[in-house]
Specification:
Number of helices: 6
Shape: globular
Distance between the termini: 14 Å
Order of helices and strands: HHHHHH
Length: 135
């Protein structure tokens, strides 16, 4: 099956929109447990899409693994506090990309987000509806 790079670019933009929506608007509509981790799962799914876009011809499992490693490294980096990195983390963009505080539970949210993104990709590939010429 062939993949379409433009399709992944659009999915990245959609996931950015959904992630921002989950942080700003969904607070008043979703249960607290879901709201606490939804943004992290969407962020991890977006990381999967970015790695897929970048390493276009790699196997889905490879993309999932490097996405999880990246997400786990970002989360672990939140244990490190130095003035320069903390000054980045207090900005809106820095907080969205690097996070602000270490939580063990975020690892599960990242796993779920990457798993959903990878499963969605494999589902599309299997259904043959995704057989679009490469962009």
């Amino acid at each position: 099956m062939k993949r379409n790079r433009l399709f992944y670019g659009v999915l990245i933009l959609i996931s950015i929109g959904l992630g921002l929506f989950s942080r700003k608007i969904a607070n008043s509509y979703l249960p607290e447990l879901i709201n606490d981790y939804l943004g992290d799962a969407i962020w991890a799914g977006m990381i999967f899409l970015i790695f897929r876009f970048t390493f276009f011809y790699q196997d889905t499992r490879f993309i999932a693994i490097i996405s999880l490693v990246f997400c786990f490294l970002i989360e672990t980096s939140q244990l490190y506090h130095a003035p320069f990195i903390d000054s980045i983390r207090v900005t809106t963009l820095g907080s969205l990309v690097l996070g602000s505080g270490f939580l063990w539970s975020d690892f599960l949210a990242y796993y779920i987000g990457v798993h959903i993104a990878a499963t969605f990709e494999l589902y599309l590939l299997k259904r043959k509806q995704y057989n679009i010429a490469l962009a």
